[in-house]
Site-specific recombinase XerD (Cytobacillus firmus), 370 residues
Amino acid sequence: MASFRKRGYSWQYRIKYIDPATGKPKEKSKSGFRTKKEAQVEASEVEKMFYLQQHSVIANKETILKDWLNEWLEIYGSQCSERTLFNREFYINNHIIPTLGNYKLNQLTRLEYQKFINYLIGKGYAKKTVQTIHSIFCTSINKAVELEMISHNKYQGISIKVEEEEKINYLSRDEVGIFITAAKKSPYHHYMIASILLRTGMRKGEMLALKWDDINFENNEISITKTRSDQGVKKPKTKSSIRTIGIDNTLTSDLKQYQLWQKKNKMKYGADYFSSDFLVCGPNGKEMGEFGVNKTIEAILKKSKKDLPHISPHGLRHTHAIMLLESGADIKFVSEPLGHSTVNMTADVYVHITKKYETQNLLNLESYLS
């Protein structure tokens, strides 16, 4: 039963209860209410929680959001990949804590959180970035609910509406010709990076993880079994990403020339040559990383001196898939070398192309039946 008393100009409530964990009597009190009625309303809610045995919720009402986020990262960070942990730490420390960190865990309202999301949108962040920040925050809140620190996650279903211009991240057939011409005028290892990405459709990290042992010159094949980022080498996320893909004669010839180029450079640099285990490296043998690949594609685009779309290395993967589809390749044939887990995934990503050829196939059927 709650008791109330006036202290100076404000009211206080006091609730005595038995701690179910220890069986000992404890007391919960709070001051600062302007009226007795306000104190009674909150005391009633607290007593209700006690009745429902939500003692953890009561105990954590004063927890500051930034303290919980840091504790969550410390305790549960080891359960995710290095890349995921890096992203969580980055977005929490650079976006969530600076704006929301000083709120109490149970006092951040849905309205205030929606304002935070709107602020991110207003700053011009991409929809995917805002969704990532929201996902990280909700994951931490869900864990707090699981630990009975708060009663529920009130931030689910928040509106994230970002008006984005459709970004073109692939090259047309004519643009591919311009791009390859510029690549051939670039340093040889730049050309090879462009050629591998464009002719295989593999992911940037998959290319960075390639070793010469992964190339089967006799059968014109490349084995993709791992991925490499700035955080190191690891297995791909899905089983379907582990695959052996066929390559055309042009790429096989290019790779043989590239291997010879590396051997000549090894003799040229002598003791200053880096003996990297990886296939993709610079003239001095030093392995290249994600940033280096990004800058390579930017340099080739700039060298073209044409108005080409500003595509990323992943854009060459899209270009590869689109060229296959436009040449009449079956969706399943395209899906497997890309390492997609399902054909539906390929169809969803390239729906604008499959729709185009769905219409053409219907016209072909009509012509055949006529």
